[in-house]
């Protein structure tokens, strides 16, 4: 049984550890966190796991086969690199790294050593995204026109990353999974309304090579939590509302729009049918853990592998660059500013 | 009693005529439309009104005191100008004109002749916007950080205007009413997915002089109708959801966000209270008609006067220019491209 | 063209008159109301109609072919009877009469004279109920297990009828249209919390001969308006939520419920698909008016004819009797108390 | 630290064990379940706990101070009795026992021995019910007119209890906590649509001595999960919707209902304000565990003590008796049929 070390037992680490325990496919062998309080919490839930305040010690330990990294963003790269260099398979929390160069270096290291490198883009493993993925790749939606996401809530402001790196990263990972076309350029505007805090609100537009357009609205300072994505296709359209307890994914026929006379303007409500498919209710993090273990065993490439994680970091970097240019579009291929 | 002539009895004209009849403050004296079918419908609902297929004849008729213009957009300017020149008070459908120059010309003409010129920005007269206006102008929300609107539906594509001129115009009028600060620059991206049709989807960002940011998401090709606006202030935040049958406006305290340890990331749900004020249920179009009649009688400036309508056209023109520049921000003062 | 007389131009009469005008299938020839203010309102909307404060005069007038009665409940019977005796076709507002005997007398009078007698059970003509009717009569839902309706709101208390006669009447008419089986007995509890007012809250249970059970929750003193009906069948289930702007009718597969171990209790969310069919958006009252005119022309029996209206009154009477018996079930056939 | 034994590790036992671990106020010392598979799951989550397939052995063990019983309903009484007789404090899953006599016997046994006896009526400990409780007991709602609950979902059918004992039990416990008045009589109708299964649908009406009326709609065979309660008071009204992610409790002013003319019927939407208070987000089961430990330490009476649990069983028994009498109301005091 694969022996897992959990690096970081703060906000997300406990979820990773629990998913490992519940999957039954691997074992939480060791947990590392600099905080004694965190380790005390860990011991209550995982009494059989070894504990340490020295993350590097755990990474190098021969007792573990793989590391899951859930530490602050600026430590993702050094810890993941050290783990790969120690011969461990790695799952790293999103975003994979703070720069394209570092993300790329992790991909290289994993490939050179034949190790499994996975990024924890959890949403990709949800029943909702898997259902939408099937709809798109089976061409049931037709050509994809747009992806339009609102991902806002009232949250604590993070200190080390802004709202783009914290929230838009989810959509970039989902889009990387759903779109067959490549993103060509990104335009982004961001604003920070509280002093001494990173930007808390941003609007991003991604232009795809196929002509499709994606738009993301991310905000830490919204009155309520909204997680809603509209996807428009030439044949059908989708609403994915992650805040619904059921019917998270609704598929709409374009519908027969009636002929209208000369003055016709808008038809308020459509006439087509709507369909909400049954979704898998398996917890995404458990599916993700199983995928990690399966790829370690088989050598397969994970659904959210390091290369995909690198593409996501490329998009994040381009978006950041665009915000500095007041929204001027930034090309993705080489991160140069679009002419 | 003010005698009104209705120019255009297609999609919107019947609503104007009905509002006049219901207000009791004015009378539908004449209805003009080039279509016989439209006039037949008009005669069923307004049997006492004179009918004509010659709009100019009605505009010049001494039998009417004021004209309400609900014709295609490209005729707004010539018809409104002719009506003013004939000494009639005018309500013109939104957008007021197709160019800033023409809108400006209408303002001048009305001022010179001392006539009431009003633009039919109906939303401004709703109980919801009036309640939000009070919240903002009483400083209950504190400083305004952002206005974020989603205005999408599945509609018939218009032939003469694109989605910005059709839908974003509503938000521009609302913003003109709510914001005390001036818009400095607009950045907009638009896309048209159907051939031979104007753009059907756009995202617009408006930068205000005070630092506030507005964002509009407008789309004719969405699976469902959404009319939702988030307004963030330094003290409170608002959700305005026009699709709700009740509680269209909800006001949220920022709430006490708990202290968190080093790993703290997001708090999913806020802890503050929410309040939904009772709103006036009076029909906006009737309030608007009463405002028109009141201003004709008193010489007062209407809430949505020609000058405000001109500012809205300036924003529309700037947004259009930005879409041609792939989203490059366009300054508003002189409609020159932002450096 | 059928010439219609509108008896009563208070709350509902204007809607009937408008529906007649919009249908184009008949003409509002005359409007009668005892209130001068009501007639003034009528003249603004229907300037071509003759007006009178004497309803009986209108009923007897040779200028009209049919009467639509929208007066207080206790006048339904005498006015409808007088109209039938004057040889007019009749639409009478719900409930058709205050007693089974009087409702029965109207049915007899209409049959004897070969006149069309229709009850204005408007909901039956909505796109939603017509779609549900098709689902049930095509056996797509399988055997009907239950009909469970919540019909509550904060309203003005009526003086002449209680909440059962005001709100439950809608469900009884819908059930009469949907169920093939006959109601066997009704049990009802009611309460009135305000002094000098009829009962404002009631719960009713209807036992059908086939074993199905219907339950109605009606209340004038609720904090919000709810119009939601669950219909359970052996194959599929339906939610009909009339407060939704779209997707008013949702059809759920029973779904494959997974096998469970010995301790299994509840599965929170179902796994089957959901489907929301496109509904006709035609206004119910216009469809109803067309049905009335069609039946006058052809001699056909209307969908909501007097016999159905009589069955609804029988259910109302049984429910009232049960409330007097503290909820003891009352048999429907002969209105005797169930043993 | 209080040492807890968990009796039954099937559906609910794991939640109790987790709450104990998270509260930090007590320790999961031992877990008993007849199923080896269940114990294997228990060992993954609670590796430090002793395990046994012999529940009676655990109950008698000197290693534990208190027992939490989450076994099938028909074993609640014998196991709770054995635990009390062994000198252990007890939390027993709802319903406390299958008969009033047995529930009463448990209360006596606990009182005689000075042990803490608590029933796991979890909902009472939620932030929502605690907020509503404050509203009622501070008289902010005024006199309580009604409590109207819809508690339906598509679930697996239970074998040992029907839907009344499974779902209505929650409302009875909540009502026992909220109402100051005593329930006088209960009328209930139930139906079972699947063969070899207990009743899956029921409607219950509870008449209180003060004149208030409660109604419960419980159903295992509904298309969706609904958890909605309306509470009407003379001053304010409440909606408690447990399926909402936020704003679970909304408080409505009665609102000023406008004067109306003679024909006035209904006002669709109310005019008063709405307020949604911030609710504690602490997990109810953790609060409940803390209450249990606190009462063991201090000798205080728990919020949901055995006497309250007994009252709930009395209501369940009266409801069951009424279903056998076709809905005839059953008095509560002595469980005799109401005359």
UniProtKB/TrEMBL annotation, chains A, B, C, D:
Annotated Gfo/Idh/MocA-like oxidoreductase N-terminal domain residues: 2-121
Identification of the protein by name: Predicted dehydrogenase
Give the molecular function GO annotations.
nucleotide binding
Question: This protein's superkingdom?
Answer: Bacteria
Record-annotated GFO/IDH/MocA-like oxidoreductase domain positions: 130-236
Which organism is the protein's source?
A: Tranquillimonas rosea
The record, for Gene3D superfamilies, names: Dihydrodipicolinate Reductase, domain 2, NAD(P)-binding Rossmann-like Domain
Name the SUPFAM superfamilies on file: Glyceraldehyde-3-phosphate dehydrogenase-like, C-terminal domain, NAD(P)-binding Rossmann-fold domains
């Amino acid at each position: 049984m694969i022996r897992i070390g959990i690096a970081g037992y703060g906000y997300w680490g406990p979820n990773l550890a629990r998913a490992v325990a519940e999957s039954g496919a691997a074992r939480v062998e060791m947990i590392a966190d600099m905080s004694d309080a965190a380790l005390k919490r860990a011991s209550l839930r995982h009494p059989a796991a070894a504990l340490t305040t020295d993350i590097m010690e755990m990474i190098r330990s021969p007792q573990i086969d793989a590391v899951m990294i859930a530490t602050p963003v600026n430590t993702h790269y050094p810890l993941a690199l050290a783990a790969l260099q120690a011969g461990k398979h790695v799952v790293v929390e999103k975003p994979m790294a703070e720069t394209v160069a570092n993300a790329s270096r992790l991909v290289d290291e994993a490939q050179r050593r034949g190790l499994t490198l996975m990024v924890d883009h959890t949403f990709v493993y949800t029943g909702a995204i898997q259902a939408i993925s099937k709809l798109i790749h089976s061409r049931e939606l037709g050509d994809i026109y747009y992806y339009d996401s609102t991902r806002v809530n009232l949250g604590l402001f993070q200190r080390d990353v802004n709202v783009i790196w914290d929230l838009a990263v989810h959509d970039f990972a989902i889009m990387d999974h759903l779109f067959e076309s490549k993103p060509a350029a990104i335009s982004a505007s961001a604003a920070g309304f509280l002093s001494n805090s990173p930007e808390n609100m941003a609007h991003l537009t991604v232009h795809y090579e196929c002509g499709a357009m994606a738009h993301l609205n991310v905000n830490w300072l919204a009155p309520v939590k909204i997680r809603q994505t509209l996807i428009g296709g030439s044949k059908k359209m989708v609403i994915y509302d992650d805040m619904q307890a059921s019917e998270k994914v609704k598929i709409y026929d374009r519908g027969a729009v009636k002929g209208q006379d000369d003055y016709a303007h808008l038809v308020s409500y459509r006439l087509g049918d709507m369909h909400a498919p049954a979704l898998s209710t398996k917890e995404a993090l458990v599916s993700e853990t199983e995928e990690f273990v399966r790829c370690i065993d088989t050598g397969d490439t994970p659904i959210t592998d390091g290369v995909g994680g690198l593409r996501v970091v490329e998009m994040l970097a381009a978006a950041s660059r665009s915000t500095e240019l007041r929204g001027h579009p930034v090309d993705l291929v080489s991160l140069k500013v679009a002419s």
